[in-house]
Amino acid sequence: MHLVPRLGSGIPLVARTQEMRRLRAAFARAERGEAGAVLIAGDAGVGKTRLLTALGEHVAGCGGLVLTGRCIDVRDGGLPYLPFAEALAPLGSSADPAVSAAVRARSALGMLLPQGDPRPAATGDHGQVSEGEREGGRRVRPEQDLGQLQLFDAVLGVLTEVGQERPVVVLLEDLHWADSSTRNLLSFLLSRLRAQRLLVVGSYREEDVHRRHPLRGLLSELVRLNTVEQLSLAPFGPADARAFVAALAEEPLSPDVVADIAKRSEGNPFFVEELLATGADCQDLPAGLAEVLLARLERFPAETRRVLRVISVANESVSHAALAQVAGIGDLELDEALREAVQHHVLVIERGFYTFRHALLQEAVYADLLPGERTRMHAGYAARIKSMPQGRGHDAKLAFHSLESRDFDTALSALLRAADEAEKLGAPGAALRHIEQAQSIWDAVAPENRPEGVDELKLLSEASYFAGTSGEPERAVAYARSATEALKPDASPEHAAKVWRRLAETLLTLEGTFDEAVRAIERAWELVADREPSGARAWVLASRAGFQRLLDQPAEALASAHTAVADARAVGAVGAEASALVTLGTLADGAGDPVEARERLCEAERKAHNAGALNVEIRAMYFLALSYDDQAEMDLALAHAARGVERAEAVGLTWSAYGLELRARLLYLRYLSGDWPKEDAAGRARRGVSSAVAARILANWVLFLVGRGRFADAAKALPGLRQQWMADPQIALSAGDAAIELAAWRGEHAEALRITDELVSWLEKVETALLGGIRIVALAIPSAAALAAEARAKGDLAAADRFVAVGRRLVEHGRRCAAEGHPRSGTIGPEGRAWLARMEAAASGLEGPADPELWGAAAEAYSYGAVYEQAVCRWRQGEALLAAGQPGAAEALEAAHSVAVKLDAVPLRDAVRELAHRARVELAGVEVVPVARAQVNPLTDRERDVLERVALGRTNRQVGEELYISEKTVSVHLSRVMAKLGASRRAEAVAIAYDRGLLTVPE
Q: Residue 67's beta-bridge partner residues?
C-alpha cells in the first residue's frame, strides 16, 4: 500500500504555532480597523501555501472575506496585475448588493475584472523622453487613460469599502513571479494601509529573490513601513521534521524510516510529502529533488504521465477542454488520467481548472520533457489560444507559447500586441520586455511575414520610449543610439532627422552626454535645414531652440523657436508648436519677464494637451511650476508641481525626464514649505527604474530623514547616493547638503567640513560657481565657527585661527557663486537671497558671538514660505540674542520650537529645548522636568549646571557665556557650591560631587 500524503487542510500544522499566532493577531488588528500586511518568506515547499490556507480558514470562520490571487511564471514580460485580477474576480461576480455597488462605482476596475476591458485608446502623442513627438504611424496613447494612479486608487477604494461590512484578507502567493505592475500596485496598497479593515498577506520564495531580483528592492522598502511585518518560514528542525513525518503518514512507520525521511527532507515539508509518497522504505530514492518528484510519477499509467507533461507546459491552471485539445485524447481517457493524478494529490482543482499542487513538481516535469515534445505541446497551446480568445493577457500567452514552440512569425505579432496591451494598462516595464523579445526574433522572421508598418527602426524607437518611461534612461539612450546606426542610406531626410532628434533628447537625460546630444541635434538640423517646412523640420527647430537655450545662446534660441512656431503652424504640427512655445516661455523667464513666460507656458500646455503631445505637456507643466518657484510664490509653485505629477501619473509618464523632475521638485518644495510627508513611500522611486532615477528622489528624501532625526536611515542611504553624484549634479547637491547637516547635528563638525570640501571641489569640476554652492557653505560655516569656539575654549588660538580661515574661504566661495552664477530668471531670487543672508549671519559668528541682527535678517529672508529654514534661523537668532544679552530671545526660540514640533523635526526641537533650558527660557507646551538627583542633593539646578561645566575645564567666563550669565554670577554660584560641599577649591568641589553621585557630565 502506498502512503499518500494528505493535502490542504488535511496536512497537519506542525511547529507553526508562533507563525499562526502572529497571523491571527494581524487579522484581529485588521478587524479593529488597524490595517496591516504580512510578507511570508520561505524556501519552495516549506509550507507557505499551507499556512495561508490555515489563515484563510480562520478568517472565513470569523466571518471575514478571503480573496486569493497567485502569480505565475510566464518568463519575461509577465501578465500585468494577474494576482490582483484573480483575487478581485469574486467581487465582480458577487451577488452582494453592497459589493456590487462598490465595484460599479469604480470604473477603473474594468482593467482587472472579467467583465471589464481596458479603456480604448485615443489619438495622442507617444513621445520620446523629453520633447519628442510621435508622427506618421506613431503609437496612439489613450488621452483619457485612467492610468496607474486611478486603477490603484480604485483597488484600494473597493477593498476599503467592502471592508466596512466585513474584514477583508487578501492572500497573494508567489510574489517572486510578480510582474512590475503587480509590484507597483502592492507597494501602493501597503504604503497606504491606515484604518481600513484590511489585511494583505503575501508569500514568496526566499531563495528565488536573488540580489538582482526586482522584488528584492521592493521588499527592503516595504519592511520599513510600520504597517508591514515580515514572517520568515524556516524549515523544520530535526525533531519537528520527525513529528511531521509521523503525523502525515496514514499508517505507523518505523523510527528508522521516519528518521530517514526527516533527514533526507532537510526539514522541508514538501520534500517530506514527496519522499513519503514514494513508499515507506524510501531506500532506493535518488538524492535530488527533481528525481524524487519524477520517481513518484513513475507509478502512474502512461496516459496520466502524458497529461501531466501537457499541464506542465501550460505554466498555469488548465481547463479540461484545453487539455483534451492539446493532449489529443478522448474525454473518457482524459478523465481517468486526471482522476489518477488528482487522487494521488499531484494535481489540484481550483475553480474548475487543473494545476500542479506545487510549482516544484511542475518545474520537474517540464524540465524532463524531450525537446521535440516540449515544442509540440507549446505549439498546441498556441494553436488553441489563436482559435479561442483568452481575454486579458491573450497575446502575452500566445507570444510565450509561440516563442517556446519556435513559431516566430506568430510570436512577433503577438509580442507587439502584448506590448500595446501592457502600455494601455500602464505597465511600460512589461511592454519593454515584449518589445525586446520581438527584437530578439526579428531576424528569424521573413520580411514578408513581419507585421505591416513595423521595421527595426520602429522597434528600436519603441524600446527607447518604453525604457525612458520605465525610468531606465541609460537603456533608452542605448536603443536611441542603435536607431541612428540602423538608418539606411536611402532614408528620407525627415525620417533620419527624427531619429537623430530623438537621440539628442534622450541623451539630455544623462549626465556627461551633453556634447554628444548637441552634435546629434545639429546633425538632425543639417538634414532638414534646407528643406521645405514640415512636421519633422518644425520638431527639429523646436528641439534645437531648447538646446541653444541650454548653451546660453538666447538670441539664437529665440530665432529657432519663432521659426519652429511658424513652420509648425504652416503644416499643422501643433505638438511641435507647443514645444517651441515652452522654450519661448523659458526664455522669457530668463529675461526677467515672468508674466510673458507664464502666458507662453500656459498656451503651450493647452496646445500640447489638445494635440496629445504628452511629453510636451508635462514639460510645459514643469517649467510653469519652476517659474513660480523662481519667484518664491510657494503656494502656486506647489500647486502646479502637484498638478504636473498627477498628470504624469495619469498618462504613464511618471518616470519620463520631466515627470521625474516634477516629482523631485515637488518633494523639495514640500520640504521647504513644511509639508513633510509621513510615509517613506514619498521618497521611493518605482521598482525597476535605474539607480540614477531612484537616487534623484532619494537624495531629496534624505533631507527629510536628517530633518526628522532619522540619522541611522540617512547615514545608510548617503554612501549609495555618493556613488550617484556623477549621474546628476542635483543628486550631489541634495545628498551633499543632507550629509553636511547630518554631521553638524551629530556634532561631527570636522566631518561636516570634510564633506563640504569634497562637495565643493567636485561641483567646481562639473560647473564653476553653481548657485547651489551658496547653500552648501551656509550650512557648513556654523561647523567652522563651532570648531573655532571649541579651540578658543581650550586656549588653542592657532587652531581657532585655522578654523576661522576655513570659514572665511567658504564665505568667499559663496560670494563668488552669487556673483558669477547663472540664475534661471536672470537675477538671484528670494531663495538664493535667503541663503546668502544666512551665510553672512553664520560668518558673523566665526570669531565670537554671532550678530543677532544678521540672523534676524536671515530669518526674515525665508519668510517667503521656507518655514523649516526660517525656524533654524530663529534658533540661531535666539542663541545670538542670549549671547549679546539682548531682549527677544524667548520669542525667537518659541517661534523655532513651534515649527520644529509641528514638523517633528527632532534635532531642531531638541537643540531649541537645550538652549532654552540653559538660558532658563520657558517654552509653551514643554514641561520643566527636574533633573534626577541623589536622595540628598544640596545643589540647586543652576549650581549643578555651573559645576558640570567647571568639571569640563571651562573658565568662569566660558561658563557664563554658555549659561548666558555674567562671570561674577558664576563666581557667586561656585562659592555657594564649595560652601555646601565643604570644599576649598574648584577641583575639590568637582571631586566631592562625583564621589557623592551628585554630578553627571553632559554628553
A: 170
